[in-house]
Amino acid sequence: MDEHPEPAPGPADAGPPLDRRAELSEFLRTRRARLKPEDVGLPDFGRHRRVPGLRREELAQLAGVSVAYYTRLEQGNGRNVSAEVLDAIARALRLSDAESSHLTHLAKPKQHKKKTSAPTQHVRTPLRQLLDTIDTIPAYITGRRTDILVWNRMAAAVFGDWSELPPQERNWARLVFLRPEYRDLFVEWEQKATDIVSMLRMDAGFCPDDPRLSALVGELSVKSEEFRRLWATHDVKEKTYGVKRLHHPLVGDLTLHFEGFHLSDGSDQALITYHAEPGSPSADALRLLASWGTDATRAGTSAQRPDLTP
Predict the structure, then answer these.
(1) For the whole prediction, is pTM greater than 0.90?
(2) Which H, E and C letters describe the chain, residue by residue?
(3) pLDDT, tens digit, 9 for 90 and up, residues 227-276
């Protein structure tokens, strides 16, 4: 297991707060644009429509609110909006649970989220000890902004030795969008990138005043065209399980099931584990990586790929 404390924020780490009103406005507009009238049982007048998706009037009708009320909300004025109205709009827009939660965070932020910075992220000692005991599968703990906080030896063997990176670079968004080796590692790189941006969007709704988050978004927007494109979609979702296909530089193709366990201690952290189907070639490859120990963390730079033929 490895752990490195989050560095104290400096000028380069801070950015202006994200504009919550603009975030709310764009989120509602993009959710409305993805719905067609026929999706919600309304007549489609075809060529007479000047905007993609539903009109504001149609969405207001579906939600049971006045057009003026909905227009104010879509313009970013969520002040005094009730939970009942937000629920009605979420149903009309056919939002997922994650999207509904995001809408609530944007429209009705809690007072404590107006702090100028988010608290430093620490991982509890028992959790670090737990990672020490998991020595056959990759596991790590992430925090806000997709920061990678602690990890075990197998995570380093599969994903690379993050201890060799500066603390601020131990972040999934930076790894996926700015480091070419991760494009090679993830077979479905576009899906991984989409998932990462969706998680950052959730963080932006929950804590828009986090200067590290706004700095990260600003940096990625400048350096990555793909990030700018995905960020503009305003998509949000939570993925707590699934399958990842990797192409590892030492053992080749891996198919791993991942599980995400959100911690209930209010830390905004999650334990992520990966495992292979028993008896599969991927399971054999994980055992081989485990047997190599720290040599596997070189990910092909100093350790040579052995002959895997019997």
Answers:
(1) no
(2) CEECCCCCCCHHHCCCCCCHHHHHHHHHHHHHHCCCHHHHCCCCCHHHCCCCCCCHHHHHHHHCCCHHHHHHHHCCCCCCCCHHHHHHHHHHCCCCHHHHHHHHHHHCCCHHHHCCCCCCCCCCHHHHHHHHHCCCCCEEEECHHHEEEEECHHHHHHHCCHHHCCHHHCEHHHHHHHCHHHHHHECCHHHHHHHHHHHHHHHHHHCCCCHHHHHHHHHHHHHCHHHHHHHCCCCCCCCCEEEEEEEECCCEEEEEEEEEEECCCCCCCEEEEEECCCCCHHHHHHHHHHHHHHHHHHCCCCCCCCCCCC
(3) 999 999 999 988 789 999 999 999 999 999 999 999 988 788 999 999 99
